[in-house]
Amino acid sequence: MNPIIKEITAPQLKNDLPAFKVGDGVRVHTKVREGDKERIQVYSGIVIARKGHGIHESFTVRRISYGEGVERVFPVNSPMIEKIEIERESQPMRARLYYLRDRVGKKAVQVKEKRWVGLISATEAAPAETPAQS
Questions:
Q1: How far apart are CA 85 and CA 87, in angstroms?
Q2: 10 assigned to some structural domain
């Protein structure tokens, strides 16, 4: 990218967003204006794609609503995004999860979740010994 453009757009970039990736379950809090009132609306689903870089970066969130798949594209640096919460982390094997569009039911939200293995020691994992019965 051109360094001049990078310098101009630098103040518009958001730095307070969590590090989420494709396959993560997220809740996106967006500002919605209705007339002269403003409220926060939450959209939750699975991130199926991240595109672009810098000020043009966006991500696509997919969810199932009343049996129908719904996708919404959010610009990462939009002032209309209040915050992004990560509900669950995953270990996808692809950069884009477009294959979820063809799935129905529980398989439409199944992405291999991240497993936390090796966090407890062997002594904690072993079951406690029971006293011998006489």
A1: 6
A2: yes
Amino acid sitting at position 56: H
Q: What range does the domain containing 118 cover?
A: 3-125
Q: List, for residues 92-118, the tens digit of each pLDDT value.
A: 888 999 998 888 777 777 677 776 665
Sign of the Cα torsion 10, 11, 13, 15 reads positive
pTM score: 0.78
Query: What's the structural domain count of the chain?
Result: 1
For residues 90 and 24, give the distance between their C-alpha atoms in angstroms, rounded to a whole number. 5
Indicate which CATH number applies to the domain containing 17: 2.30.30.790
Contact 56, 81 (CB under 8 A): no
Which phi and psi angles does 70 have, rounded to 5°?
Answer: -125, 130
